[in-house]
Design a protein that fits this description.
With 345 residues, the protein is an alpha/beta fold. Helix content is 43%, strand content 11%.
């Protein structure tokens, strides 16, 4: 068997040039007076600046740690769908997606895009479809990030199983793109953004799917639940028991043809548990690098988010590791598979 491609299915452009953040600050400052700008054209970032921001950060670490390709989306905490209105989000999402597209063009062997959606609290999800379609068809993006809570921690949207989301799912199925379920910054003081809101949302999304028959309606719809699935793998027995009480099929039939988990779990025992509890065909390699946890673990001397080390050390066969590094990503992201096949990979 040839060596696996190491595909990191969860990376964000957290190191974008500061001009992007400055533009966003002006947009937020002028929410009530949008005529004062900034205009889209006022964001000027050169290819050299993009190259620098990637080469010295994500790409350097990918090479050091042995990852080949990252599925790359705009910075999740910056999506902040709760800020402003639909128009605010549409302009912001288009800008952020375009930057990820340019990175994918500058480094076509190392980055391929996943789209941020221009969601806004209370806005019909249909308003996100055009941006998704543009990113997939024109930018060659292979997935999307879907925020189940555009309110930023107040959970004002209906659950993911609600029919109001269905127009998006219909288009996802048509385009054959999966969604990573990914919230953004919490503006609820009870929930720390990356320490609780993210993990809560992962767990919540799973339970919303469990209690529903969403995947009976959409048998080919695929969700990738990040951060190792939140609390799901650890409490797998609880979820199995709840499904049983609700007279749902076994979870492997009810959810595991459609739901997948990434490996953004930042310690060995967590990865050991994940790969023992969740079938290997449902686990995709990821590091969410450079992301929420950037430090070095004093117990190991390695970066917490250097997740390949944990996969290497886990009790897995070579074939299972291949599934986690490459095979599953190509199955869950058919457009990624097509792009790689076209390159002879
Ligand atoms: Zn993320």
């Amino acid at each position: 068997m040839r060596e696996s491609l190491i595909i990191d299915c969860h990376g964000h452009y957290t190191t974008a040039p500061k001009a992007l953040e400055d533009w966003r600050k002006r947009q937020i400052a002028n929410l009530k007076t949008p005529e004062l700008g900034p205009k889209v054209a006022e964001l000027k970032i050169s290819d050299d600046e993009l190259r620098d921001s990637i080469e010295t950060n994500q790409l350097r670490l990918m090479k050091e740690r042995g990852a080949d390709l990252t599925i790359f989306s705009p910075r999740a905490s910056f999506m902040a769908h709760h800020i402003g209105d639909l128009n605010t989000s549409q302009t912001w999402a288009a800008l952020c997606n375009e930057l990820c597209y340019r990175v994918s063009q500058l480094f076509p062997d190392h980055f391929i895009g996943a789209a941020m959606l221009p969601q806004s609290p209370g806005a019909d999800i249909r308003t996100s479809i055009a941006e998704m379609e543009k990113c997939v068809k024109e930018y060659g993006f292979v997935g999307i990030n879907l925020n189940p809570d555009p309110s930023g921690g107040h959970w004002t949207s209906p659950p993911l199983s609600d029919r109001s989301w269905y127009p998006l799912y219909e288009k996802m199925v048509e385009l054959d793109v999966p969604a990573m379920i990914h919230v953004s910054t919490s503006c609820n003081a009870c929930f720390h953004t990356t320490g609780s809101h993210y993990l809560n949302a992962d767990t919540t999304a799973f339970m919303q799917c469990l209690t529903s028959d969403l995947f009976t309606d959409f048998p080919t719809l695929k969700f990738l639940i990040p951060h190792g699935g939140g609390a799901v793998p650890y409490h797998w027995g609880r979820f199995r028991g709840l499904a049983q009480e609700l007279k749902k099929p076994l979870l492997k039939d009810h959810l595991l043809n459609n739901i997948f988990f990434d490996t953004c779990v930042y310690h060995q025992p967590g990865i050991d548990l994940l790969t023992r509890v969740i079938p290997v065909e449902n686990v995709l390699f990821a590091s969410e690098m450079i992301g929420a946890v950037r430090g070095i673990d004093p117990e190991t001397g390695h970066y917490y988010d250097d997740t390949k080390r944990y996969i290497e050390a886990a009790n897995l066969s070579a074939a299972e590791r291949h599934q986690i590094y490459e095979g599953n990503a190509r199955r869950v992201f058919p457009r990624l598979d097509a792009a790689l096949t076209q390159k002879g990979l």
